[in-house]
Write a structure and sequence with these properties.
The protein is an alpha/beta fold and 342 residues long. It contains 4 helices and 40 strands. The protein has 2 domains: 93 residues, MurE/MurF, N-terminal domain (Udp-n-acetylmuramoylalanyl-d-glutamate--2,6- Diaminopimelate Ligase, Chain: A, domain 1), CATH 3.40.1390; 214 residues, Hexapeptide repeat proteins (UDP N-Acetylglucosamine Acyltransferase, domain 1). Pathway: Bacterial outer membrane biogenesis; LPS lipid A biosynthesis.
């Protein structure tokens, strides 16, 4: 799909400097722009590229002044970065604006399908499923029995939502994510052999939750594993059974959270963090990457290390960690002197 500079300026409420009829069909970084692409300049350190870019259209701040001739048409806006972000969102909406039911796909006769939905080829929609309006289920996805998905939510290709789970409005479940698999529940007997404990709960995602590719969220043993409103989970995260994550918390890739742990609101958790089960993490907590959390955490703490220490304590201790060989050598030298003088 092609857009003219004039059309784009209308979307962004900007002003065209150059050819209003020039067309673009792709987006590009300013240093990689080619004919038919649109780019933007927001960071001054990239200013030199505007004079060499081959992009047909460049979005710039309204106070931008040229110092030499340009080959690109400009669209001047109040904030180039925000304007380009708005354009990305608009572009994404168009790209994902699919509707209808592709074949082959399976939709149970008892399923309830809202308006303007898209169900891609080879998808499975189970018994008593309820899909709201404007839901997109991309090809090769599985929606189990009795699942509810709210308005404007998206399940990308290969997403799996097991039975009884509840997905809110405006949620995004990326490819390969699995919502509602059995939790890791096994009980040993007197012989040391393990028997599976049935996992009969579900997973609830509240509104505006994003789940990254390959992330797994286990169903509760009883009750629900709950991901509260506005939570953003990166790729390849493991959320165990009966975990609860508070609203607007963000978690980076490869983090693992063990069963029945409660995480508060507005937390920021870095990549490869390990969190044990049955603890409580307060609100506004920040955990640095690769930390190991083995205890409950109060509100507003900032942690690093394994086992995790207070962020300031960790940094002070690290000064000594890296100097430990030198410190040991000094101690050994002192001991030799003391022994020699005794």
């Amino acid at each position: 799909m092609k857009f003219t500079a004039e059309q784009i300026a209308g979307i962004l409420e900007g002003t065209v400097i150059g050819d209003p009829n020039i067309e673009v069909s792709q987006l590009a970084k300013i240093e990689e722009g080619t004919e038919g692409t649109l780019t933007f300049l927001a960071n001054p350190k990239y200013k030199s590229y505007i004079y060499s870019t081959k992009a047909s259209i460049t979005i710039v701040n309204s106070d931008f002044e040229t110092e030499e001739a340009l080959d690109t048409t400009l669209i001047k806006v109040d904030d180039a970065y925000k304007a380009f972000t708005k354009l990305l969102e608009y572009y994404n909406q168009i790209k994902l604006n699919k509707s209808g039911i592709e074949n082959p796909s399976f939709i149970s006769d008892s399923a309830s399908i809202g308006d303007n939905n898209y169900i891609g080829a080879f998808s499975y929609i189970g018994d008593n499923v309820k899909l709201g309006d404007n839901v997109k289920v991309f090809p090769n996805s599985y929606i189990g029995d009795n699942v509810t998905i709210g308005d404007n939510s998206i399940v990308f290709s290969g997403g799996k939502i097991y039975s009884e789970c509840i997905i809110g409005n405006n949620c995004v479940i990326n490819s390969g994510a699995i919502i509602g698999a059995d939790g890791f529940g096994f009980a040993p007997d007197e012989k040391g052999e393990y028997s599976k404990v049935p996992q009969i709960g579900n997973v609830i995602l509240e509104d505006n939750v994003d789940i990254g590719a390959g992330t797994t969220i286990d169903r509760a043993t009883l009750g629900s594993t709950i991901i509260r409103k506005g939570v953003k989970l990166d790729n390849q995260i493991q959320i165990a059974h009966n975990v609860e994550i508070g609203k607007n918390t963000v978690i980076a890739a490869q983090t693992g959270i063990a069963g029945s742990t409660k995480i508060g609101e507005n937390c920021q958790i870095g990549g490869q963090v390990g969190i044990v089960g049955h603890i409580t993490i307060g609100n506004n907590v920040k955990i640095q990457a690769q930390s190991g959390i083995g205890r409950s955490i109060k509100d507003n703490e900032v942690l690093q290390g394994s086992p995790a220490l207070g962020y300031g304590d960790y940094n002070k201790s690290y000064v000594h960690f890296k100097n430990l060989p030198k410190i040991v050598k000094n101690i050994n030298d002192l001991e030799k002197k003391i022994d020699g003088n005794s």
